[in-house]
Specification:
With 292 residues, this protein is an all-alpha fold. The chain contains 19 helices and no strands. It folds into 2 domains: 219 residues, Hypothetical protein, domain 2 (Endonuclease III, domain 1, Orthogonal Bundle), CATH 1.10.340; 70 residues, no CATH class. Helix 1 crosses helix 12, helix 6 packs across helix 7 and helix 10 packs across helix 12. The protein starts with 6 loop residues before the first helix and ends with a helix. The chain binds iron/sulfur cluster.
């Protein structure tokens, strides 16, 4: 097995291995069903926040009813919403599709443009969708950064960013343009089948020996910053009175203590002291606090 020493080398090796795992042309790798750039564009707009399977279940009826951008431009909103209802966010998507049909018909003579600037000027089309269209429909360079691509490229150490535009820029700089589209699509398939967000199957992964995140725990829940010390005390007044609050420093809850270091022990001992102060009942200042 090749063990690349450079970042571009790792990207090239990852692309090569993923291409072997998921063979086929860029169009083959796309799981959306389509027969034309217009159909792929409409299907990609519909794919936001849902699965390709669900999109594929509605597009035959959609394209039968509205075969051209001009037909879509004239669609009756309620009827269109009913056809695409299953894909979720159907009102916004119907608006985008009607606007898309109108713009394609009026500005591009019913054809889907290939230039990035033209594509992102269309309703409902961002860089991700534009790159799907460029790479899959036209075989042009384009890396579509979806949630899987963002996650896997970071796990593979190919980018440090969480911004899709920056990720696209970082990763594209590591590969020849002809590989951008296929790398993105194979990463998506790998993210769905092997490098699954909550439980990546590193033992089954063809990239394990070149992936800096291999076998590392990837559940990120403990890194959340929400449970700051003070709101927690307010939200759980009962816990202040109970022995559980006293146990916390010694018990050292793994998630919080591992992330926040000494914060928990330093705060926790202060809380139990409030409990004895209730017992005498004398200080009227304590009573209102405890009743909240
Ligand atoms: S080795 Fe593990 S973390 Fe790295 S890409 Fe494969 S499944 Fe994901």
């Amino acid at each position: 097995m090749v063990r690349p020493r450079t970042l571009p080398g790792r990207a090239r090796e990852a692309h090569s291995r993923l291409a072997a795992c998921y063979p086929g042309s860029v169009a083959d790798l796309c799981e959306l069903a389509f027969d034309s750039p217009f159909q792929l564009l409409a299907a990609t707009v519909l794919s936001a926040q849902t699965t390709d399977i669900r999109v594929n279940s509605v597009t035959p009826a959609l394209f039968a009813r509205y075969p051209t951008p001009a037909d879509l431009a004239c669609a009756e909103t309620g009827e269109l919403e009913e056809i695409i209802h299953q894909t979720g966010f159907f009102r916004a998507k119907a608006r985008s599709l009607i606007g898309l049909g109108r713009e394609l018909d009026e500005r591009f003579a019913g054809e889907v443009p290939t230039a990035m600037d033209d594509l992102v000027s269309l309703p409902g089309v961002g860089r991700k969708t534009a790159n799907v269209i460029r790479s899959v429909a036209f075989d042009l360079p384009g890396l579509a950064v979806d949630t899987h691509v963002a996650r896997l490229t970071k796990l593979l150490g190919l980018t440090e960013s969480t911004d899709p535009v920056r990720i696209e820029s970082d990763v594209c700089a590591l590969l020849p343009p002809r590989n951008w589209g296929s790398f993105g699509l194979t990463l998506i398939l790998h993210g769905r089948r092997v490098c699954i967000a909550r439980r990546p199957r590193c033992a089954d992964c063809a990239l394990a020996d070149i992936c800096p995140s291999a076998s590392l725990p990837t559940r990120k829940a403990p890194t959340r910053k929400a449970p700051t010390d003070k709101p927690a005390a307010i939200d759980k007044p009962a816990a202040i009175d109970k022995p559980a609050a006293i146990d916390k420093p010694a018990g050292a809850p793994s998630a919080r203590s591992s992330v926040r270091g000494g914060a928990v022990p330093s705060e926790a001992p202060a809380r139990p002291r409030k409990a004895p102060s209730r017992a005498p009942r004398d200080p009227p200042s304590q009573a209102p606090q405890l009743s909240r």
